[in-house]
Amino acid sequence: MFEQAKRVARNQPAVTETITEDLRTLAQIEKDDQLELAALEHGVELHPTDWKLRFQLAYKHSQCDNNDMAFHHYRKIPSPLRDSIAWNNLGVSFSDFAMPVKSIGAFRRAESMSDTLAMTNLGFRLLHSGFLEEASLLAKKALGFEGYHSNVTDLLKRLSELPGEEDEKETEALEKVKPKASFYRQLGDAALAETPIQLGSKWLAPEGVLDASLDGADLRISGSYEQDENALAGLLGGLTVGKLRDGFNLLLNSGATC
Q1: Residue 109, Cβ neighbours under 10 Å: how many?
Q2: pTM recorded for the entire structure
Q3: pLDDT over threshold 70, residue 243
Q4: Within 10 Å of residue 193's Cβ, how many Cβ atoms?
């Protein structure tokens, strides 16, 4: 049926608009996003100054994750003709393309038109940057409007949750650094301690007995240990496993740096 309609439209341009509207209706019924986008794009071509239709096209692109096309069409709506929703959505588009200054500016324009969704978007951005009090003031402002956007409650929830989450992170970070802080505290004590003039010559380590000696302020540790020549062969069983002797020397210099 639509193939016949399209042939009629080619021969009678006056009916093109009707066919385009019907095509969009069919796309909505069939939940065919690409077909609806095509119908909207053609509608905008027919009426390039129909800003309401262009907004609908931009919004549909955003629903389909075509963020670049959404930005393209939102930006084409003249500034004086943008309502609060258009300014808010343009703010989201600016944010999608890493333009925070323009994004905040657009949200501010929508806020000045009493758009509570824009207030929420501003509040979240302030909160993510650490401005808790400023975000809280915006949330309270949005609550003062009848029929405020449902996202306002999401902002209020995050405002109540975030301080506790950061308290937990602070406690976790301080607990995690305790061993390191203890080490550096002992290192500081050792830096002011008198260098020993003698120490035990034999040290017990997991690998065996180590030899230790002092050379001025430097500590020298040496030793040797045995290990299987082929550890995998030992796992296979029934094979003779040889022994390898390995040695090492370690010099701890008092003048070492980080």
Answers
A1: 19
A2: 0.69
A3: no
A4: 9
Distance CA 211, CA 221 (A): 6
Parallel/antiparallel/unpaired status of strands 208-215 and 202-205: antiparallel
Of 148, 107, 145, the residue nearest 125 (C-alpha): 107
Q: Where are the alpha helices (DSSP H) in 31-150?
A: 33-46, 51-63, 67-76, 84-96, 100-112, 116-128, 132-143
| Three-state DSSP class for residue 83 | coil
Distances (CA, A) of 144 to 103, 111, 136, 147, 250: 24, 13, 13, 9, 72
For 213, which DSSP code? E
Average pLDDT over residues 52-56: 96
Q: What is the pLDDT of residue 175?
A: 95
Q: Tell me the CB-side half-sphere exposure of residue 130, using CA atoms within 13 A.
A: 1
pLDDT band at 240 (very low <50, low <70, confident <90, very high): very low
Q: Tell me the domain boundaries of the chain.
A: 2-172, 196-252
pLDDT > 70: percent of the chain: 79
Q: Enter the CATH code of domain 2-172.
A: 1.25.40.10
Map residue 13 onto helix, strand or coil: helix
